[in-house]
Amino acid sequence: MPNDAGQDRYPADISAVFSQNLKELMGAPPNVSALCRELSLNRTQFNRYIEDESFPRPDILQKICIHFGLDARILLQPLSELINDPSNAQAFYGLHEFLNMRPGNVPEHLFPSRFYVLSRHSFIYPDTFIQGIVHVYRKDGMTYITGREPISEMHKQSLPIDKYAREFRGMVLAMDTGLGMLVSRRRFMTGSINFVAPVLSFENNYWKGDAVRTSREFTTTSRASRMVYQYLGQFSDQVLATARKSGLAAWMNCPVITRRCCCWTVPLNKSSLMSELEKYSRG
User: Fold this and answer.
1) pLDDT tens, residue by residue, 125-141
2) Is residue 138 classed exposed, middle or buried when 0-12, 13-18 and 19+ CB atoms within 10 A define those classes?
3) Are 80 and 98 in contact (CB under 8 A)?
4) 159, 125, 116: which is closest to 258 by C-alpha?
């Protein structure tokens, strides 16, 4: 994108571009009242922006940009240029409104950054678990997850076992009752769609849910699995030790807390689960 997009622009030019962009973003007929209520904006002032009579202060511009998934170039460039910019792909066709892809949509208290232990049933070997370390981080207001498939799992499937081939990444999105994740290795190899929610009364350390693999269905394998995330925090000896033990594990060799959270049929009893968690932490 040219660096001189905003050169030789007068205030009237800026307000005209911004006005036209707002009209296109709002659609027809524009629901100004609803938007102003959602963003806590003055409706009269917002109408002045639409009617090319003014342009907003920086704090108001930030609210508008975050809402529509754009940036300050909304003042200088036509909307058609902005939505076709790959850096604003989440705003294309307004998907950010439907998928909740606005920056800051997953606050730290809902799903903290740093390291987690991920445990789930193996898709291929239903009587075993897969355990590994994943890293949750934030960039430009969005929340991402990354990790590597266990070497043992890749080897059993006759897949390359180098770090590049084993790496997976994904995006974390806030949903109505939990968190959604779209995760995959490169070129969407062995991708999965995940949903997890915090386990109550566990000091925000455990999230449990389900993973669905993006593959064809076979009689010998499963496309769905229960899963649990345990928060470990910053890099530590515990993170390193857990990473070294990553891979396939027998059902009975997993912690009780993991077996209970990943069980399809056993109901989760908070009191007994807390008791078992205390025993596990002591021993």
Assistant:
1) 767 788 889 999 998 77
2) middle
3) no
4) 116
Q: What is the pLDDT of residues 209-252, one digit of tens each?
A: 999 988 777 766 778 888 899 999 988 888 888 888 887 777 67
What is d(CA 255, CA 264) in angstroms, rounded to the nearest whole number? 16
Q: Which amino acid is at 51?
A: E
The owner of tokens 């590994």 is 132
**Around Cβ 39, how many Cβ atoms within 10 Å?**
13
Q: What is the pLDDT of residue 83?
A: 61
Cβ atoms of 147 and 170 closer than 8 Å: no
Domains of the chain: 11-87 (1.10.260.40), 114-282 (2.40.128)
* Overall residue count recorded for the chain in this entry: 283
Backbone angles phi, psi at 67, to 5 degrees: -60, -40
The secondary structure of the chain as a DSSP string is --TTTTTT--HHHHHHHHHHHHHHHH-SS--HHHHHHHHT--HHHHHHHHTTS----HHHHHHHHHHHT--GGGGTS-HHHHHTSGGGGGGGGGHHHHHT--TT-S-TTTS-SEEEEEEEE-SS-TTEEEEEEEEEEEETTEEEEEEE--HHHHHHTT---SHHHHEEEEEEEE-SSSEEEEEEEGGGEEEEEEEEEEPTTSTT-EEEEEEEESS---TTS-SEEEEEEEEEESS-HHHHHHHHT-EEEEGGGS-HHHHHHT-SSS---HHHHHHHHHHHHH-
Other CB atoms within 10 A of residue 130 CB: 22
